[in-house]
Amino acid sequence: MSSFTKIRLKWIHPDQVVMVNPGETCYAFLHPLSQGGGSLAIKIPLEGGRYYLVENRQRTGADSILPDSGILVLKVNPDAVEGTGTVKVMDADPSSPFFTHATYRLDRSNRKLFVYRTNNVAVIPLWPGEDKQGVLVTSAQKGEQALRAVLMVQKMWQEGQRGQPMDRCMEAFKQFHFERCIRIARRVLGGN
């Protein structure tokens, strides 16, 4: 069951949905959809009443049988005739059959970034935090640079970087100064 269905059934309350307009930059940590909790979805409104929903799908609870886990992006057209594409999965790997690799994940080279330029939206999976999964939503123009910043932060963590440089890098990232974050990380990592 998707966030779309759960919202319609009122199983997800409006305060559990983070609203982000196209072109804006925001990050959130989403609880697994099947477990409930705080924030469960990100909604990105589009023209004509359409919108994207972003959700965290993990192999837990009712989702334990999923073929894949990670960040799932759905495109919703509420005006579509029921059964004709009201909700479309924005498949991260359309070459995989039956949505077996539909989610976006940092640990998969071809599934790190969802970009839709026409709607000025980019979605990037972040690192997990406690029992949640981080997600960054930004503009299509900032998508590639934001992804580079995310990967640099991840590399610093993997190499055990701590202290002031890591704090400065994270502060730049949290303020959406992606280029500054990349510069700090490159200095720390020796130009990598």
Portion of residues in helices? Answer: 10-25%
The Cα radius of gyration reads 17 Å
Task: Give the termini distance in whole angstroms.
Answer: 42 Å
Amount of beta strand: 25-35%
Q: How many separate structural domains?
A: 2
- According to DSSP, the number of beta strands is 9
Taking pLDDT < 50 over at least 5 consecutive residues as the criterion, the unreliable ranges are: none
Strands side by side in the biggest sheet: 1-3-4-5-6
Order of helices and strands: HEEEEEEEEEHHH
Structural class: alpha+beta
Please explain how this structure is put together:
The chain has 192 residues and is α+β, with helices and mostly antiparallel strands. The protein has two domains: 3-140, no CATH class; 142-192, no CATH class. The protein has four helices and nine strands; from the N terminus they run αβββββββββααα. The strands form two sheets. A five-stranded mixed β-sheet has the order 1-3-4-5-6, with no helix packed on it. Helix 2 (143-158) runs antiparallel to helix 3 and helix 3 (164-174) packs antiparallel against helix 4.
